[in-house]
Amino acid sequence: MAAGVAAWLPFARAAAIGWMPVANLPMPMAPAEKSKRQDELIILNVSGRRFQTWKNTLDRYPDTLLGSSEKEFFYDEETKEYFFDRDPDVFRCVLNFYRTGKLHYPRYECISSYDEELAFFGIIPEIIGDCCYEEYKDRKRENAERLMDDQEDNKDSKQPNVTFRETMWRAFENPHTSTMALVFYYVTGFFIAVSVITNVVETVPCGATPNQKDMPCGERYTVAFFCIDTACVMIFTVEYLMRLFAAPSRYRFMRSVMSIIDVVAILPYYIGLVMTNNEDVSGAFVTLRVFRVFRIFKFSRHSQGLRILGYTLKSCASELGFLLFSLTMAIIIFATVMFYAEKGSTSSKFTSIPASFWYTIVTMTTLGYGDMVPKTIAGKIFGSICSLSGVLVIALPVPVIVSNFSRIYHQNQRADKRRAQKVQKARLARIRISKTGTSRPFLHSKRNGLPNEALDLTGSIEEGNHQGAAISLLESQHHHLLRCLEKTTNHKFVDEHLYEQNCLEGALQSYPSHSPSLSSSGSLTGTCCSRRARKSSHLPNASAPPGPLCGLQELSAVHIQHSDRPPLSTSRSSLNLMPKEVLCKTNCKSSQITAAIISIPTPPGTTPDGDGHTPSSPSSQTTVSSNIVKVSAL
Amino acid sequence: DPPAVPVISLSTSNPKSGHYTQNSVEDDFELSTVCYRPEGLDKLLEQTKFTKKELQILYRGFKNECPSGIVNEEAFKLIYSQFFPQGDSSTYAHFLFEAFDTNKNGSVSFEDFVMGLSIILRGSINDRLNWAFNLYDLNKDGCITKEEMLDIMKSIYDMMGKWTYPCMQDNAPKEHVENFFQKMDRNNDGVVTIDEFIESCQKDENIMQSMQLFDNVI
């Protein structure tokens, strides 16, 4: 039961006066207070600071330390107070929880000390109010991450039994884990740089010998360059193979971008090895050498910034694509215009529309090489319009990329928030469970066969109080209230599972209403398995049963309703009118009461059990010849 | 008949006197900052049959849940629903609210609250029966019709919720009402007047006994 409303229990019990005159059954005895207790002040001495509160305030939460008898362990006889050797500042929050029903988390408090205090006083942190819960969760997460980082550092040095493969992989991914990894990192970086520089220098014309014209260094010092190239490729190959070996998921590794770059970087060399002697494809081979420049992308393993840039561009792909499309449109438009404008002038460079593309692009991007210029006045006018609009178009990509970058950044943050929301849902679920726990104790106490009979007969609650879990007076009063409601309506509270069980087996169809047609259990709203609908539903073609039968049914129904036998249980008769063979979706079968005054040949009914447990007699169905009525008995 | 509620002194604004002309936002704001203080303990002692301690306990509980000093219907329903987790107690709470709100101003003050409780918990059996009749008589015309009783009965059955044993039938309230009228309606004119009600209740052992349950609620 919630905190503050415990004080309203007398009101709720008084409000039950509305049920009394309509109840047909006697009410159970009320739990009597053992003594007319006055509300007393309790002194809580927490490390010297004295807090005082009413006993009732603490009793609101009987499943915490202060609300239960556990606090008696801390009672000091001489000073007549409860002494706790804990932090008084946090205790202030704890006590306020009892007073207001809301638990707050003070920002200045350390998260772990707060958690410890809550654990000591038996309060679950999920109850922290929404005002402070975010803060609490954030701090808790930071703390957990910090702990995890510490653990990881320790784990690396402590765990000897990590496989060699895993160490290798971790070394590749994070060069700071060990010196070997760092060495490896720098060596590969060096060789990438060497390889790239080699490729560049290869094409520089070296110093000319007097008798030969300038030739690129690559052709002059072929052997040297070849050696360097071989060395680099060997290093890269070894590195790639090692990574492939160490990867936890080889297939995923081979699909990753970095490994593709690796492969593309070393492949030309091997292809070149294979095809050296073939003159025809030497041209293609030369082209392949271009791919050697991809080695520079291997640097992205060494640079975080490159990776982020690459990722941003990748995620901006759609925007950039659209931009490209709109640019293309503009180019085509302007190229066409320029072509037709310059058609008239002689010796114009604008020989065709595609030839004008070059001019348009150069003008729109404000490059202005000047190799193609319009000569006619119309051409010049359109040329200037083109360059002005180009300025606008160039301004477009930058915000797109920037906004995408910020979007990605925020997405990361939102991913964190989403994780928090999942946690929030779990938390709400936990709170809901603990709140619905209010109905559980009542049902539990009933199932344990508790106070019902004891109270009715002896009227004392001594036994009641000492049975099972200690039920506080508040709870026993609440339970008495619920029991009065049960008596008033002549129904009992059950929990969901029991209810569904009974529905499946006990299968009480909705009774015929005062209209002659029987409402069958065909529609869901009519059966007990569904919510009690305001109006009973009728099957559209529920044919009216013969009159006398209907009357008999009604009689039997009435007879059952007012019987005082408490668990009418599964032994109520219900006559299904089934124009179709359709029953409720759980295929409820019904059982039959022995007291039914029905003139239909029925199978021997089972005797009603005392407490409504499912009788296990086999089900049988008899059909009455004249009516389409089926009587089935469990 | 319900006891007259004396004039209450207020600290800030008086929700009874005409501030209703303002727009709704301001109205809400006003109501939420209104602090409604009940009369002195002594006056309440005279008007009710509670002891001082009992009044103190009651007020502390009341004030804790409603710091502004009055309960409106929503809060009332919310509080009452805490006691019936399985069912829907809002309709019955509505009827209760109507019964407690004797001066029909849409809110229950501590005086209303404590007056009602005094009748139920400390009144004579006749007083209690009177109060119950007042609860059932929704339009306060002095007699209970079948429709009124059906509403009340449905609200009571609603509190049981869905998960009951035996399964809740649709016409259970209606049959219960029939039963009630059979018992109570002496002259079979389709309504139950206050005299019929009290007379029938006094003849019923169960009801008399259950009325005594309220003696030691507080």
Task: Describe this protein with a few key phrases.
heterodimer; A: 634 residues; mainly alpha; Potassium Channel Kv1.1, Chain A; Four Helix Bundle (Hemerythrin (Met), subunit A); Helix Hairpins; four-stranded mixed sheet; three-stranded antiparallel sheet; 23 helices; 52% helix; B: 218 residues; Recoverin, domain 1; two-stranded antiparallel sheet; disordered N terminus
Task: Name the overall outline of chain B.
Answer: globular
CATH H-level homologous superfamily name of the largest domain in chain B: EF-hand
Q: What order do the strands of the largest sheet of chain A run in, or round the barrel if closed? A: 2-1-4-3
General shape of chain A: elongated
Euclidean distance between termini CA atoms of chain B: 24 Å
Flag low-confidence runs of chain A. Answer: 449-470, 509-634
Share of β-strand residues of chain B: 5-15%
Average pLDDT over all residues of chain A: 71
Percent in helix of chain A: 40-55%
**What is the count of β-strands of chain A?**
8
